[in-house]
Amino acid sequence: MTRQLPLLALLLLLTGVAHAQNDLTLKTRAYRQQHEHQLLDEFQGLLAIPNVVYDTVNIRRTGAYIADMLRKRGIEPKLLDAKTPGVPPAVYGEVRVPGAKQTVIFYAHYDGQPVNPNQWADGLKPFEPSLYTQALDAGGQPIPFPKAGEPFDPNWRIYGRSTSDDKAGVFAILSAYDALRQMNVKPTVNLKFFFEGEEEAGSVHLGEILDKHKALLSSDLWIICDGPVHQTGRKQVLFGVRGDVNMELKVFASKRPLHSGHYGNWAPNPALMLARLLTSMKDEDGNVLIKGFYDDVTPLSESEKQALARIPPVDEQLRQELGFGQAEGGGKSLAELLMRPSLNINGFASANVGKLATNIIPTSATAALDLRLVLGNDPQRQVQTVIDHVKAQGYYVTQNESITDEERAKYPRIARIIAKSGYRAQRTPLDLPIAQTVVKAVQSTAKEPIVVQPSLGGSLPLYLFDQILHTPTITVPIANHDNNQHAENENLRLQNLWDALETYVALMRL
Amino acid sequence: MTRQLPLLALLLLLTGVAHAQNDLTLKTRAYRQQHEHQLLDEFQGLLAIPNVVYDTVNIRRTGAYIADMLRKRGIEPKLLDAKTPGVPPAVYGEVRVPGAKQTVIFYAHYDGQPVNPNQWADGLKPFEPSLYTQALDAGGQPIPFPKAGEPFDPNWRIYGRSTSDDKAGVFAILSAYDALRQMNVKPTVNLKFFFEGEEEAGSVHLGEILDKHKALLSSDLWIICDGPVHQTGRKQVLFGVRGDVNMELKVFASKRPLHSGHYGNWAPNPALMLARLLTSMKDEDGNVLIKGFYDDVTPLSESEKQALARIPPVDEQLRQELGFGQAEGGGKSLAELLMRPSLNINGFASANVGKLATNIIPTSATAALDLRLVLGNDPQRQVQTVIDHVKAQGYYVTQNESITDEERAKYPRIARIIAKSGYRAQRTPLDLPIAQTVVKAVQSTAKEPIVVQPSLGGSLPLYLFDQILHTPTITVPIANHDNNQHAENENLRLQNLWDALETYVALMRL
To answer: How far is A64 from A72, CA to CA, in rounded Å?
Structure first.
């Protein structure tokens, strides 16, 4: 354990000062340079197993592969099940370190978001990992995996589902432990490993797993390996996450598709109805207009505000890189906006466009939405604000799959809203002593000042660790920020994987 | 030729009076009752050939099948090509009738709208015609095609692409001629047959075909067999059609899909941008708010207004049948609203919904639109009003497939608008003598008063016949109104096919 500095001093120390990378980092680097082929062989094997969270058969195959990875490292794996049968188990393992006074659990998840292979670039298959000379949209070209003895370029990228989110996390943690073993360096804390298999479905049963295996999962800290490093390329440490809840909003019109010539001007158009509904929810600046949407927000603490103010601005660089002209938020910074709850349209579908388009008036229109939550927001209360808003626009709102003739006869406008259970946001206070230890450990591996954020914009069910295990969580992400996480063409830059190894070696020597 | 009544007297005569079906109609009915199996065998063969308008190989197979149908009836088919090579040819045939003073060309089209087989009901395949006891949404059950000697129920429906639009038209025309032959009844006019193969693509080359084969196609009248009978179930005669032009409107945001947690609240959401754009185009009553959209409309003539006033109201019955609560149009009738230009959203797509939905901010959003045009509207001028509107909302509008980095850097909002060429509306004056003859012929086959409409809501490129051949057109549709034309689960009610046979026999004895 390192001596503690007051938080503000530490934050200042992280700003704009050149840092030295410590010996362990350099040693880890040398080890990695000698083992790149072995490392990538094992990673490719992991990536090749389909892991869409709803694909229960392959999810279990993925879990079994990870259990084997633990065994290879001399750790006896356990599969931690939930009370509910059939839930993908968490894969668990532990390493007791003689003399260690603290225990750290390392978390990553091995399931992935759904894939629509048609939307992936030509030549890319979600579960056939492939190597490219750089990012596709920067002109990256495919390249075969090099043979033994041939070098890797650290700017190459591996494409495939979960290359970054979050098999990279699983792999970085287990490879860091392996590096320590091979280098004969002892961890300074007891290590536990916990790999979840249901995160992308909203971690519906994680609470049950934590509750059922409470004794086994006792620790002083959870370190969460998920998400991207800062857009500047600097490493970052995150003290919280937004919560999230998914909704589907569907608007119904005619029971059957209608010829747009014979009925256009008279039959209601569900795509337009849904467009009007969505438009009513946000203003031109992206502010949510739904009544009560911002009511429950817990304000930032003073130290959170200070940390926020120190995050390097990336908005203009990012806007150019992403190629859009105008951000939402009326001029507020990205870092600031991520501290607010948000309402996102993830997708919109009504009949067909392109080659399949026909001259009809569709029967329904559907929007997939996700609401990001901040501290203070309750998922169901937030969903209710949206339902109330839709009702206030003159809609009858149901949760039923099909609409009855009676409902159709009775209500001029009908919407179906289905919300998943979702989960709350979580924030660990920046002032905890162990928090500062983690920040210093990560900084010891980096030349540039690392970024400390009160919260990730993304979501993880970290509130559960707090609520059930009363244990703080800190997130140390590793992926490149342009990894296309959750979407087609997901990828990982090799250098990010190499950096991750050094980071996680340091985190096992807190 | 029949003696002419003044138009108003004829229209009055058609209102609310019981009519007798004439001998020819009864004779045709008896003939049909004896030949139902033969008729449906031939129709099934026609339906089984895929005819999506863009599927050039199968379109030609469909044309060849129709050419064979002509041959079987003792008519030597001609394939009429366009100046542009590779265009699906029109299939043509003619029957000279000794002593006949007039010539009527019968038109139908043999191509069909695109199909998305996934959207069709379980058990239905677009090009495997299948029989159901009634409409699917009324609880229709599949039933095998009856064996020789077993009866058909006239309420049964055949499901498949183009069962109604418009292979039914091709088939009704050729079967009516066949019936006359078999019954040894001579047509009273020279007959020409013209079956188009590119209607559902907007009849892009029909003008070329008409122009190239002008001499062959001389006539006194074109009778168009396409579209549905009136929603009351009564037969109808239509004196015009709306024009149509298809557009695609695509809005661009970030170059790559973004994680909705890490970027939600800041990155612009293209689905919301497009929703806002579409919402700005129409008010709550469905009135188009685009500047100039209604400017060019030619007012209805007095006799058109009279005909319009006599159309039986169906709005309330239809609204209930279609199961929606509130029509567009602020209380105006369907018949009245179809005399206005319209802007329809045919489809909307942005990323994914349902099982494929992921927590992202999409990169783009696309809407398929069609603009229905009335007399006076020019397709390109109407498209321009939409483009100007989008520009007025702050968009840079391009037609290019891909957006350059320079464009992305320069313009805060970017939309791509691609419009097809489209075509104008057409209306034949109700007062023409031959028009009245047609109305009387159709009425002679029906017990109930037929409906006379100044214009169909749907579209056909009838302005070309006027412009190139200087020949009037009258449309006599045959399909059931609930045929799902252009959409999934397209179908034809058998009784409509039987009625069509009687109608078209009468139209060959004007």
So the answer is: 12
pLDDT tens profile B378-410: 999 999 999 999 999 999 999 998 899 999 999
For residue B70, which phi and psi values (nearest 5 degrees)? Answer: -60, -50
Q: What is the pLDDT of residue A473?
A: 97
Distance CA A242, CA A437 (A): 23
- Asked if residue A324 is part of any domain, the answer here is no
- Rounded to a whole number, what is the distance in Å from the CA of B21 to chain A's nearest CA? 28
Q: Give the nearest chain B residue to A245 (CA atoms).
A: B359
Copy the structure tokens of residue B345: 């959203």
A405–B contact, CB cutoff 8 A: yes
Spell out which residues of chain A touch residue B293, defining contact as CB-CB under 8 Å. Answer: none
Chain A residue with Cα closest to B340 = A265
* Contact criterion met (CB below 8 Å) for A97 and A191: yes
Q: Does A1 score more than 60 pLDDT?
A: no
Query: Which range marks the domain in which residue A262 is found?
Result: 242-319+336-419
**DSSP type of residue A137:** G
Residue B175, H or E segment = helix B167-182
CATH number of A11's domain:
3.40.630.10
Q: Report which residue type is found at A118.
A: N
Does B501 map to a domain? yes
Query: Do residue B223 and residue B372 come from a single domain?
Result: no
Is A443's Cβ below 8 Å from some Cβ in B? no
Contact A114 B356 (CB under 8 A): yes
Nearest residue in chain B measured CA to CA from A425? B261
- Judged on CB neighbours under 10 Å (0-12, 13-18, 19+), A296 is middle
Q: How far apart are CA A70 and CA A91, in angstroms?
A: 9
Supply the CATH number for residue B372's domain. Answer: 3.30.70.360
Contacting residues of B for A354, CB less than 8 Å apart: 248, 349, 366, 368
State whether A230 and A88 are in the same domain: yes
Instruction: For residue A18, name the pLDDT band (cuts at 50, 70, 90).
Output: low
Q: A259, B458: Cβ pair inside 8 Å?
A: yes
10 Å CB burial of residue B20 (0-12, 13-18, 19+) is exposed
Nearest Cβ partner of B353 from A368, A412, A458? A368
3-state secondary structure of A136: helix
The CA-atom distances, in angstroms, between B353 and each of A371, A485, B20 are 15, 17, 55
Chain B neighbors of A484, CB-CB under 8 A = 256-257
Are the C-beta atoms of A365 and A348 separated by less than 8 Å? yes
* Residue ranges for chain B with pLDDT beneath 70: 1-18
- Number of separate domains in chain B: 2
DSSP calls for A254-300: -SS-EEHHHHTTTS--HHHHHHHHHHTTB-TT--B-STTTTTTPPPP
Give the one of B260, B279, B323 whose C-beta lies nearest to A405's C-beta: B323
CA pair distance B403, B411, nearest whole angstrom: 11
Cis, peptide link before residue B166, omega less than 30° from 0 = yes
From the list A282, A348, A403, the residue facing B349 with the nearest CB is A348
If phi > 0 it is left, if psi is from -120 to 50 it is alpha, else beta; for residue A483 that is: alpha
Secondary structure of residue B497 in the 3-state scheme: helix
Closest CA–CA distance from residue A8 to any residue of chain B (Å): 26
Report if residue B318 sits inside a domain.
no
Any domain includes A329: no
Neighbours of B120 (CB within 10 A): 20
Residue A3 has pLDDT above 50, yes or no: no
Q: In the numeric block, which tokens belong to residue A355?
A: 């080659």
Q: Would you call A456 and B262 a contact, using CB atoms and an 8 Å cutoff?
A: yes
B491-493/B157-159 β-pairing: antiparallel
Task: Establish, for the pair of chains A and B, how many residue pairs have beta carbons separated by less than 8 Å.
Answer: 369
